[in-house]
Predict the 3D structure of the following.
Amino acid sequence: MFGEEYDVIVVGGGHAGAEAAAAAANLGSKTLLVTMNLQNIGQMSCNPAMGGIAKGQIVREIDALGGYSGIVSDKSAIQFKMLNKSKGPAMWSPRTQNDRMRFAEEWRLMLERTPNVDFYQEMVSGLLVENNTITGVKTSLGIEIKSKAVVLTNGTFLNGLIHIGEKQFGGGRAGEKAATGITEQLVDLGFESGRMKTGTPPRVDGRSLDYSKMIVQPGDLTPEKFSYTNTKSLANQRDCYMTHTSALVHDLLREGFDRSPMFNGRIKSLGPRYCPSIEDKINRFADKDSHQMFIEPEGWETVEVYVNGFSTSLPEDVQFKALRSVVGFEKVKFFRPGYAIEYDYFPPTQLKHTLETKLVENLYFAGQINGTTGYEEAASQGLMAGINAHLKLKEKDALILKRDEAYIGVLIDDLITKGTEEPYRMFTSRAEYRTLLRQDNADLRLTPLSHSIGLATDSRMKRMEEKQEQSESLVQFFKETSVLPKDINPILESVNSSLVKQSDKMYKAFSRPNVTMDHMLQLENVSAFVQENNFDNEILEQAEVQIKYSGYIAKEKLNADKLHRLEAVKIPANFDYSKLKSLSFEAREKLTKIQPVTISQASRISGVTPSDISVLLVFLGR
């Protein structure tokens, strides 16, 4: 069946696996995607949504690099929202509600249309390793498939254990069996493994809910989209709804705490700090009598509904009784109860920045196997693993995104240098250069990089160059064009800004707080210039951000340049830190384990102090 050798085998068909397979194949590697169920490629295991705070930026970055997640999200969206619009543009984060079935269907079809991708449905139970180098995989039927590189994207399936109250059973997802064999082999090869936990809420019948008692949550009036390609924005949208738990609901849930696997010791691993279960929220925030719940439809036609904010592993009878006491849920019918799942992961400090393992050459890890949580985090790692597996096989330089280039760069750098003991989730606060890493400029930041390695297409590059030229020409227009007091003062007065007494450049007036592009478009020559050049909203937004935040952007670029100087100071491979007696014991231990490539990476390792960095710089003659 498999007489030929593949370039890349991707194990797992979730968000990480799908992006890894697409990237490697589009770059020209002969790729095989092996998954336990081909019907579940691109499956949304938890909520039917993409994006959100910082995660929306990641989806835009995936798209800018030539990945598929943004396109699939746009094609299957049922609602679009730009979150945090009341804050500065560094915080704006796109998010879609999606049709769960269409999302998976679009992923499957896009992969099938991708040349160089083969598919095979079976469980991978082992890896073929010779002389610490990967040579392929072995399936549960005993079939050996040869390849030059392997990307593991096993999600929650490695020895997965599902918990509902006092009941527990093996599984990687509801209705699907766990994957066995790989963890044990990797541990035998010298890898360190751990256990993590995640959870999901009940799915219910939307026909049994009373939406009139809930608060409607509509999408944006003028919805945007994720992809920088020619996908269409939504013309129609489905509403979501909001309701709340109550003191009564909390009391009913507490009745089941003695049977909760979280509190009776059955679950020993850590769950996601920023997406806790409802019982965890009640326990941690005992002073609060109410928590928000968001009621999210699973698609255009289906009546199935996702109960966001009610993730739980309590017994099913407790879940049902408590949920029926929520406003609007008095007659609720369950499709299935919520559950928790424990699974194996491998601390990501065992990886290089390319996501290749340090112990086995040409073996890559991506997604929840690295201790992250979230579709977007997984997809971005899959994309980078697929890219770097191909580049290494072709003996080309790796693609490693810096912290000032992408949220993806922050994510991978955090994992490699800091590790994680709880499911890692990306936030804007994790990125020290978030003014540079906005969702509106991901294509300007990353498409040239991707195009240079052959992943982003010529058409993507051309579109990005046109956007850059148009936004720069509009910014230049504001810098060069003067405005008279009689024209600008009515606008300034309307926003309670001090009036001007003589003509000045538009750029200066536009830079003032509360003066927006809509205000500037009231000026005849601005409106004429925009219409003459046929600038769309994307160009107007880009120019406005560049003008109003130019000072912040310049400051962050200066700080990033300082970082780059430390990135230029390389640490020799296999450096012996034990001979530097001036280093703290913790620093020696952490640096020896993680083996950072540069001084900058070393400085971000927890436990490595500024004085330790000074010792290293002195030793390296810097």
In short: The chain has a mean pLDDT of 94.
